[in-house]
């Protein structure tokens, strides 16, 4: 992904294997339900990979995330560090699973909650209640992708340095601020290189898609059943391209535009967040043009003079922008934005700072999560583009026309995100064409801020005729499933449980 905005509101890291014997499970899952079509023969891989038996044990707590109880079990899958050398060195990928609760089991349903950099091991237990109907017939499975959380998660800088970097202006106005901005970006990349070592060149979306297919084999499934959200839609599209004959029932919700390059993604997000802000302002009875101008004026004042907060820290322009972004991910959070903006106008930066801290995974003791670290190492390996400062400055006017509030922030981010990165990127845009694949259900939300609605049609076009089936929800927030639409939830559940493909371009309002 291009910009430094997470494409999902999940993060953190979680547990791995527990060495105790209590609650231990061994062996792979049962094969897929009788009658499911067999997948083509897999590319030859060493038996040490394909025949490994997962040692399912009680999950451990990790960091601030408590160990999930109940039927949840964790295991480690061994995958090649370098997929071009499958007989070579391996790394561990952390998995979590809860077996199907009913008797009529279909197979495993893998979940990726986005990011990139989100921990599936941490998030899956919290999301399970939203998919209880699916849980009756599927084993719910998720994982920490390589470079994330318990799967050799990368931490590029410590908490002290992370907090110090909050003083760096993400929309530099002077030569000195520009130097500080790009120096900080380069330092971050060096920290990632030191922390990750050889792994830094092997955390791409393509690497993870190949991990998924090995996961499918080891779990005992003939075809992959998958639910990808946000960035997870790009991952699902890449999987479908690499393994079209192994596509089972795939749902992609909050779809990333696969035809957009790094700069295009940043423009899409500027457009999406501005659209969400306009909708928020309309909902409060404000004129979007005037309301956006007032918020942009507030941000400019903060650039000159940050506001004090009760914690003793200060609300900068950059932190305020982050604080405004967070509640736009979910319509029920809009009242928090209203309250925070009112406080900032009265001279109190604390509520907006609290929103920014939540986005940045900063807890009350000053510890930060690492989702954004993993996001950066994955996206900078994926993205080939490296816009220069001069190129970025030439584009700023366009970004600011797209969004007077978020344009400059996202425009500068295209230059700073992967500045002076230690390894080259792999592609301008991901390849997701999947001729011959089974139908893939794509869900687009007309008010989605982070993955604007237009990307759904682009993904359908790229997957190919008859593969991408589009479902539209006329709603707000990032993602559609589980957001209050019975129409969306029923359509998705019917597809996953019965294999019933909805009519293309179905609309849920």
Polypeptide structure, described:
By secondary structure, the protein is α/β, with parallel strands linked by helices. It has 17 helices and 13 strands. Strands 1-2-3-4-6-5-7-8-11-12-13 form an eleven-stranded mixed β-sheet, sandwiched between helices. It has a two-stranded antiparallel sheet with strand order 9-10. The longest helix has 22 residues, at about 175-195.
Short structural summary:
The chain is of the alpha/beta class.
Mean pLDDT across the residues is: 92
- The percentage helix is 25-40%
- Secondary-structure content class: alpha/beta
Shape: globular
Question: H/E series, N to C?
Answer: EHEEEEHHEHHHEHEHHEEHHHHHHEHEHE
Topology:
Blueprint: E1 25-26, H1 47-50, E2 55-58, E3 73-80, E4 90-98, E5 107-112, H2 120-127, H3 132-135, E6 138-143, H4 159-164, H5 175-196, H6 205-219, E7 224-229, H7 231-242, E8 247-253, H8 262-283, H9 288-304, E9 307-308, E10 314-315, H10 317-325, H11 334-345, H12 350-359, H13 371-382, H14 389-402, H15 407-416, E11 440-447, H16 454-463, E12 468-476, H17 486-498, E13 506-508
Parallel strand pairs: 5-6, 5-7, 7-8, 8-11, 11-12, 12-13
Antiparallel strand pairs: 1-2, 2-3, 3-4, 4-6, 9-10
Helix pairs in contact: 6-7, 8-9, 8-15, 9-10, 10-12, 11-12, 14-15
What descriptors fit this protein?
alpha/beta; two-stranded antiparallel sheet; 509 residues
């Amino acid at each position: 992904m291009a910009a430094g905005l997470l494409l999902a509101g999940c993060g953190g890291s979680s547990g791995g294997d527990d060495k105790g014997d209590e609650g231990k499970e061994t062996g792979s899952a049962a094969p897929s339900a009788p009658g499911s079509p067999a997948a083509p023969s897999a590319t030859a891989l060493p038996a040490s990979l394909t025949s490994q038996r997962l040692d399912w044990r009680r999950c451990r707590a990790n960091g601030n995330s408590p160990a999930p109880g109940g039927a949840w079990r964790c295991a480690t899958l061994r995958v090649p560090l370098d997929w071009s050398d499958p007989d070579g060195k391996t790394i561990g990928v952390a998995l979590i699973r809860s077996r199907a609760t009913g008797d009529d089991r279909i197979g495993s349903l893998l979940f990726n909650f986005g990011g990139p950099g989100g921990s599936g091991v941490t998030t899956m237990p919290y999301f399970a209640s939203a998919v209880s109907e699916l849980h009756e017939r599927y084993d719910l499975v998720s994982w920490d992708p390589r470079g994330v959380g318990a799967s050799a998660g990368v931490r590029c800088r410590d908490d002290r340095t992370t907090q110090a970097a909050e003083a760096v202006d993400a929309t530099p106005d002077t030569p000195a601020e520009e130097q500080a901005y790009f120096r900080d970006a380069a330092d971050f990349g060096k920290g990632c290189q030191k922390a990750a070592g050889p792994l830094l060149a092997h955390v791409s979306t393509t690497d993870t898609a190949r991990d998924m297919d090995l996961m499918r084999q080891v779990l005992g499934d003939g075809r992959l059943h998958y639910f990808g959200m946000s960035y997870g839609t790009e991952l699902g599209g890449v999987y479908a391209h690499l393994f079209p004959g192994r596509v089972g029932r795939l749902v992609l919700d909050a779809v990333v535009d696969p035809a957009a390059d790094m700069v295009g993604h940043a423009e899409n997000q500027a457009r999406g967040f501005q659209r969400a802000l306009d909708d928020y302002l309309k909902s409060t009875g404000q004129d979007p043009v005037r309301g956006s101008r007032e918020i942009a004026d507030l941000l400019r004042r903060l650039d000159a003079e940050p506001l004090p907060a009760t914690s003793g820290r200060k609300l900068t322009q950059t932190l305020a922008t982050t604080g405004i972004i967070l509640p736009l991910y979910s319509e029920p959070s809009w009242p928090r934005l209203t309250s925070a903006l009112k406080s900032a106008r009265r001279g109190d930066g604390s509520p907006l700072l609290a929103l920014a801290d939540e986005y940045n995974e900063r807890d009350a003791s000053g510890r930060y999560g690492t989702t954004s670290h993993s996001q950066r190492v994955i996206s900078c390996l994926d993205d080939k583009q490296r816009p220069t400062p001069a190129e970025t400055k030439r584009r700023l006017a366009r970004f600011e026309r797209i969004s007077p509030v978020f344009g400059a922030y996202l425009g500068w981010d295209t230059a700073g995100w992967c500045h002076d990165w230690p390894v080259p990127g792999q592609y301008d845009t991901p390849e997701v064409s999947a001729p011959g694949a089974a139908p893939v259900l794509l869900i687009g939300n007309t008010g989605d801020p982070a993955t604007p609605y237009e990307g759904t049609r682009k993904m359908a076009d790229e997957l190919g005729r008859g593969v991408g089936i589009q479902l539209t929800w006329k709603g707000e927030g990032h993602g559609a499933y589980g957001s209050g639409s019975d129409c969306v939830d029923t359509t998705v559940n019917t597809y996953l449980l019965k294999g019933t493909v909805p009519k293309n371009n179905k609309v849920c309002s």
